[in-house]
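Pipeline run #58 for the internal structure catalog. This entry was flagged by the ingest filter as a single-chain record with no existing model, so it goes straight to prediction. Upstream metadata was stripped on purpose; only the residue string is passed forward. Reviewer on rotation: M.T. Logging verbosity set to normal.
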Amino acid sequence: MELPRRTYYYKPKKKFSDKALIARMEQICLDFSRYGYRRVTKQLHREGCIVNHKKVARIMREKGWNCRPRKRKWICTTDSNHNFRIFPNLIRNLTVDGINQLWVADITYIHLLVCFVYLAVILDVYSRRAIGYALSRNLDTQLTLSALRMAIDQRNTPPGCIHHSDRGVQYASKDYIKELEFYKFQISMSRKGNPYDNAFAESFMKTLKSEEVHLWEYRTMEDAQRRIPYFIEDVYNHKRLHSAIGYCPPCEFEFLLESTPKASQNTLIRTL
């Protein structure tokens, strides 16, 4: 037919009027109030709207939709003054190329109206998915064990998976280490006073605080128990775009990995 190949494969782009574009951007900013212009642009691209990131940034600036971080009081949740065994850091310069190779764990506080409660979380570093979490009024080993057991229940974890955490007593306690050794984890701990050694978990906690906790101002434990699992499962794992995995939600990323042959996974990651 003497047609160029690109004509055969051409697919018309979905065009939004400026009015429709602004309306959709407003909805995205309402749903994800801490999104910057990059994530808003990527979300529009995923929906088939081809728009330049500079235009998105300009509209967000003009409408006052740019997120502004709020300063909060910092509370220490790590008590490393104990007599339990300290394990070496195994993840410095480590390259992770699949799920269930490296899990990171951390604890943060949640400020209620008149007190604090504590949240323990475990992430799979490769997909950035939150696979285990637990909320409690007490900062103890039972909190971290509950999060670990949830993660183990969700995953068929192969022996040799690295579990990385800080040196806090909740992670170094005999009961916690016994659980890790039973499931044949490699145990890794950060250097003392160095948050960069557990940057993946620290980044998740920052996202949780800025995009959920600080926006809702929980009054009671019941508020936290209702909202935090919703944010972790429905928003963070299934909807929120993550820049480290090609602006893709963690659960969608894992699904794509499962449906892609191992030899082609690196190509998939580059194209996301």
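catalog note: The chain has eleven helices and five strands.
catalog note: Residues 199-216 form the longest helix (18 residues).
status: ready for reviewer M.T.
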